[in-house]
Queue: 2 jobs
Job 1
Amino acid sequence: MNMISETRQKSLLYLENVSVSFDGFKALNSLSFVVEPGELRAIIGPNGAGKTTMMDIITGKTRPDTGTVLFEDTIDLTKKDEADIAQLGIGRKFQKPTVFESHTVWDNLELALNRSRGVFATLFYTLSPEDKARIGEILETIRLTHRSQEYAANLSHGQKQWLEIGMLLAQEPKLLLVDEPVAGMTDAETAETAVLLKEIAKTRSVVVVEHDMGFIRELGVKVTCLAEGSVLAEGSIDFVSNDPKVIENYLGR
Amino acid sequence: MISGFVFRALEGRIVTAVGIILAIGILVPALNLLTPADSALHIPTYVMSLFGKYLCYALLALALDLVWGYCGILSLGHGAFFALGGYAMGMYLMRQIGPRGVYGNPILPDFMVFLNYKELPWFWHGFDWFIFAMAMVIVVPGLLAFIFGWFAFRSRVNGVYLSIITQAMTYALLLAFFRNDMGFGGNNGLTDFKDILGFSVQADGTRAVLFFMSALMLSLCLILASAIVRSKFGKVLVGVRDAESRVRFLGFRVENIKLFTFVVSAMMAGIAGALFVPQVGIINPGEFAPANSIEVVVWTAVGGRGTLIGPIIGAILVNGGKSFFTGAFPEIWLFALGGLFIAVTLFLPKGIVGTIQHGFKARKALKAAADAEKGRGDATTVAQAQAAE
Amino acid sequence: MKIKFFLRVFFLCVVSALASPSYAQSGAGADPRSLIDALSKADFGEAEKLIGQLAATGDARLVPALNAFSEGDLYFRKSDNLVFIGKVSGSSYELTDPVTGASAGQAAKNAVTKIKINNSLRRVIRSAMGGLTLMSPDRGIRLQAADAVLRSPSAENLELLETAISKETDGEVKARMVEARAVSLLSSDRSIDEKRAAIATIKNYGGRNAIGILMGASASLDPSLKADVDAAIASIESGQRLWDIGQNVWYGVSLGSVLLLAAIGLAITFGVMGIINMAHGEMVMLGAYSTFVVQQVIRDSAPGLFDWSLAIALPVAFLVTGAVGLVIERGVIRFLYGRPLETLLATWGVSLILQQTIRSIFGPTNQEVGNPSWMSGSFPVGGMTITWNRMWIIAFSLSIFVALLVVMKKSSFGLNMRAVTQNRRMASSMGIKTPWVDAFTFALGSGIAGIAGVALSQIDNVSPNLGQSYIIDSFMVVVFGGVGNLWGTLVGALSLGVLNKFLEPSVGAVLGKILVLVLIILFIQKRPRGLFALKGRAVEA
């Protein structure tokens, strides 16, 4: 008990005994999981292990049947919806790159910028010099400066992934949830993405869900392996990949 | 802040469109009033009223486009907002009849005398006052849209489900307004209007003013729509249409965005209905028919949804065609309209204006990309090209 | 016709006052023929006695003669003073034997004389007829006579009824007569105890009529009986309430089955395939028109088959609408998969074209579709009435539902269909021809709409607008029940039907319908995916 309260003191994200089921299928089975401030964490696990469902719960898309989900030790995320949670500072990248295809790269970032999001505030919004500078900065980070005026629809798959990450940066989140960022990327793009994520993790916490073991090795961070809705093992990549349970459940297959 | 909002709206194409609409709004009444009846340039009053009707339909289509073309909400109930605006205007016109009705009752409209009403129902009070009636033209559709939207968007009813329940909404209103004891004249509706603001609704001069007002309101709503679409809010709107969950995870309250747009759109539809009624001289529950609302969708689709000018052109073209066909080959009209629905969805999903702009836009974007290589490029032109989409 | 005539006679017999019921009992045993012949020379007073004696014979064959007498159609032949029923035919009379009803040739107008009649005699005649029928040897006639008395009771019938009851041997007829007697007794001058017993009898009989009778009688009854009457009314009402609920449920189920018929095809095209088919109503309409055409052909070429017309129309309608559906899917819808709002618009266009086509061929007016004999009429169940056509439609829609369920769950086509809905790419790589599965699924949904049209042609106007009136309701049912779930459609249809019928009595049909629409709109807010929603991540994708 003492241990837990200590972890809770300094956690950014705290999940305890979270369970959820769909039509009798238990997607999460008393999952407990803690992310500390400034941490970069990788999550692996076979299909159906509950990775996406966990993200759904953190971001307010799905309500857990039971369990506690706390942000910054005090804020109960199960009582909030997606917009609230995003405004609290949790950004989410989807598995399939989701950007506004009929907007330009610039507009995509402008929309994502962490400014007042009310109806009238957006109606009467005008782009300030600071906002311009910030967008320019992000464009540099995601290496898309030269394509800023192109429609997002015309970007390559990898560039869309980066644009989405850029939008999350513009959102200035404290915690970034990234779902399979390198799926469908070339090797060069994958390597660049790893660098990008490590850079981002310097200023905020990042949770990456990924299948690509090479990519995770490249990140070189603490790994959590999920299976059947709960945590199977946690630790360094070498520790986890040598765990017999992990081998049986995931790697061995 | 506000000036920026309005200024953004006045992008070249919109200025041209507003100019043309206003020119028509002045020219047609002028040709009607100032030329002798045998002149080649003379426009007969019935033609002017017909075109006035098209302008109202154009405004209705623009209203639908705002929610459908930009926000992705396919409302099959916009005819209801149009009809409610029309009823508000109709109630004002009924009260203006005064003792000149068949039964000569100074307070009660004829149909109420006929149905043995003893006194004016409470919701008819105030409608003898023009300002109040005009406020109701906007408030009633807006309120209905607010209540309906508040429930629907909060519980995330969307896509086809939303379309179906908007249709159910207008259908329920259709049934309700057919009832005599609703106090809106039952299936005969409101008609036999005499005066508007003291001027005879039959007079050429009044018709001319009504025509001009239709053109003016269409222009103002076009500017408003343009301002909305070109603001950051408008970009969010398109975001909701294309990737709703992304907008949500960026921290926007999608339900508020939709609700605002839906209410503004309903109000525009109400204005269109209010201008429609004195020009055609009647409003009856038939305007609530679900088929009417669906027809509005095809005007918008033909012209090009997601463009501001498209729905206006679509509404005028389709209704012009309807007037022609129902006069010349009444048998064929439904075949033509049905065929139009199919042809537009299969072969012209962007509509007339959308298809033309698409080619235009693609060229511009290419050029912009080339410019961007040499630096940040000319952001404003490209932003405009994009916003015109 | 014959039944109508008898009913009228009974009615006359019971509404009229019986001047002197005792005639019914006097002069028994005389020969009816000679009694009638005696009328030729009798004055009004004698005629009254003779009629009494005729009534006492209990010979129901005399009813037409008595009726003819009262109508002034009784004549005697001057040559032999024999009495006949006469009907004018040209310049002469067609004569009928008053007892046997056999034809007795013709007579010139001046060869016969009309037997005179006045109102007081007519009254006596009517009472006599009532007595004759109550004691008729034909069980059916006695039952009808008792029913007629029940419907319009009168104290004057009392003794006649009591005589009839004493002679009655058939249980059901006797029970009916006892009830009729009790009702008649209330307005007589019998003792309070007898009346109390009568009230108890009426209470046991129950029904809405009984309440009316008791209420009507309570004013003229002795005050000491008031408590009995009130108690009896209360007791009947509580019994009747149950029947009323039953009747409402029945109407609701019947409406629900109509909704089910209209919606079940949609449950496939919308629920399973995700296609918003606005032309669905027109498929129903085409089915109804197929029925019309089939009936026309049968009328022209083989009228004897008319009772089979619906059975013949079923496969015809299924094939016609199925084929139209196939054409629509191949020609329009297949280009629009994954764009539901576009299918909505395109199919709306299709619906306009189909409507106008039918209007051009058959005209805009309603077409007459006949009911086969086995679908007309009704039968009572306790305190409610059930019509055969509703009965059949409920049975029909439920059997379609079951058949569809079997096709979906058991047949290989159903398996392919479900496979394609769940995972198109996987199904395709397993060798399933997905485009054809799509096409035939849509054709199946359309064909079922056509079959529904056959049934609906029996209860609705067959016009080009038929489909329009069902489309919104059908969508409501599918959305309310939950998309992609046939059971949801069943429950949705039945519960909406019952809800509608329960709202109707208190708020009226139109307002009831509006309320149902509003309730559905509110319900969808609460459960956007309907009553029986699929849950989980897959749905959201």
Job 2
Amino acid sequence: MADQTLPISAPLPEAEAQRVPWLEWMHSWVVTVDHKKLGLLYIVYAIFFLLVAGAEAILIRIQLAWPDMHFVSPEVYDELFTMHGTTMVFLVGMPILFGFANYLVPLMIGARDMAFPRLNAFSFWLTAFGGLLLYFSIVGGFGLYGMGNAPDVGWWAYAPLTAKAFTPGHNTDYWALALIVSGFGTLGTAINIIATTFSLRCKGMTLMRMPLFVWLMLIVSVLTLVTITPLTAAQIMLLIDRYLGGHFFDAQAGGSPIVWMHFFWIFGHPEVYVLVLPAFAIANEVIPVFSRKAIFGYPAMVAASVGICFISLTVWAHHMFTVGMTSVGNTFFVLSTMMVGIPTGIKIFNWLATMWGGRIRFATPMLFCTAFVFQFLLAGLTGIMLSVAPWDWQLHNSYFVIAHFHYVLVGAIVFNIFAAIYYWYPKATGRMLSETLGKWHFWLFLIGFHITFDTMHFVGLLGMPRSIYTYEPDRGWNTLNLIISMGGFVQAIAVLLFAWNLIYSYVRGRAAGNDPWDAWTLEWSTPSPPPAYNFAIDPVVRSRRPLWDLKHPHDPDWKYER
Amino acid sequence: MAEMQQPGAEHAGSGHTGGAHIHLPAPTAWPIVLAFGFTLVAAGLVTSAGVSLLGAVFMIAGCIGWFRQVLPVEQHEEVEVVEQPVVIASSRQLVDRIILSTRHRAHLPLETYPVISGIKGGIAGGIAMIVPAEIYGLIAQHSLWYPINLLGGAGVAHWSNPSTADIAAFHWQGLLVATLIHSVTCLLVGLLYGAMLPMLPRHPVILGGVLAPVLWTGILHAFMGVINPALDARIQWGWFLISQVVYGVVAGVVVARQGKIPTGQSMPFAARLGIEAPGLGWTRPDAGPPDDEENR
């Protein structure tokens, strides 16, 4: 197919040679196995779905802005929150983070590509088609209410609601099948990242000299392999229940809906770490560069990340305190959940210690990362609150829980995704994003975020349950809900500014040069954008900050690192 | 400033001349064909068997194409190396370092208050704040027990929606619980003062004794309506603030009047553990206390 090039007898004029017909340009993206192009495809795909899921969130917030609203029907409302959750986790969070891993891991370890370039392409396309299949359900997934229904069973899809008797039609099947398809893509990428990290590091790059970004992506990939498999298994069991007469989750026939919860959350809680560890990875690169200091406590950061990986696999049933576990079970999951606070606390202290005494430059990536540190701290604190079983009994399924996990998913992960885009956009495109627009984006998003999610804690404490379609005006939630919705609109404006910045700066942005941030990892030693082969000469490193060593030959890091 | 060229290269580590080529995996459409086929097979389960059949055809084609890509020899494309100069230079300004003697090393805090000072401050403040609280009880509610029961009422199990008269009456459980809460809290906050005051930049009594209680009261005022609306309705925040400030000032003054003791931070860890061993008197030149030389 695209394996051969046509012979060209005479050289074309330069301008003409550089002008690639758009069909050929499209073709080059479809057949690419280049990790950078695939990384960008992942990121663009995820940003597209971020806008889609954001629009869904806005519709949800319009519906909840006032009591007794009927802006959308109850059926559409169910579909909206199901699709919002599913999209954000599976079509935004994981793809964008794997996109960054794809783009950056080979560059950071001095490799030319991923270990399995074709598997890499296959994984991306599976993820992409999985997403499209999920949204095709809007056209094809006729459910209880007739043709064209998206899945409406929540992103957690608890049994027995998903049983054929309660959810006829195919929308739940689309949910399961789409996630099975994209799940295989995810597994492929995880295998690729592990193989790349272990086998393609350049000379001198020992494991303890790897950038923390690569360490974290390695850990995320291991965690992904462990956690995606039970989800995929559970979805196949669900399909067997629905079509082949199985009874895995059918209590009347000897099955148990609780089994679904165990399967789902043994995936679902580590999934939070699959999403947040890459966000940590981004902070590990951005904070030191903009603080002009090496990361504080590199070995402790590695150990803490590995610790999070292991502990996160032991906490899943804290989502199930209300199902009536034994007191021993409750106690175990309370304690294991609280234990996660130790390695994450180490990380927060290390980021603060990195910033402490540094010469901080508050460029846009650093602004996002600084906000992340404080927001993640608060998210962690409410997480510790919810880890206490009696507290959870009070607030389970309330908006307090929604506020907590949005503090993690938006306050930590989305903020750091924005930081990463501002930080590495110049590398990928050769253009700087506008700092003015970036600061507008940051402040508007920060204000909108806090208006929405700070307030959400209070409405949760006042007893507002999650996933409700509307509420009566005498509940005392009216003003708070209006404030939450207004915050959502402020965030939406900020995201639109960001989207405009991406487009505007691609055309009009200032030329970036190869190293606009005066950074220290290997990707900044390549031109922006990097050539297909990444490095013409294989790099050799002697420390964790190879570019620091080159820039400061009289004061290199390798003299001090052990 | 270091400059790194991106010259042409045949491959890793070999000669790098402009116009050379590097082997890279050849672009291929078979992964997308296989992925599309796999998706169609899945989609066919909820649409039509024909879709699955078409997906299976795509999958077989994708597998065959993929195998032919990598067997017997993996296909590559030659990418010409373009010479692109890359500058590796720091934009940061280099500055001279001031060479400080070990005398100028900062060990903060060099001195701190002993633990007992915090306990004393907590006890003194705790006693002092009782006065405005009781004055409030007598003036506003004509009862000595009203402020005590407000504090300790949570510990009286059978109380639900007590009337003002109930709160103004004597209840031994309320007194017991209030005494416990009051004592423990005053001691803990006193200890906190003992630890914090040496670190406050200036006017520690004003900052710790006045500003901190005002902030604390403000936070409590903001949250009490959510945490315990019934209690919130009964607290007179002006009087509450006065008693908090009285506590802060008295505890702060008592702590500040205690003698300071040197911190153990400059001592080796083993010495702080009380280990007696040869060599503990020796300190590294870059880590010793400021007056090491003179002390010797």
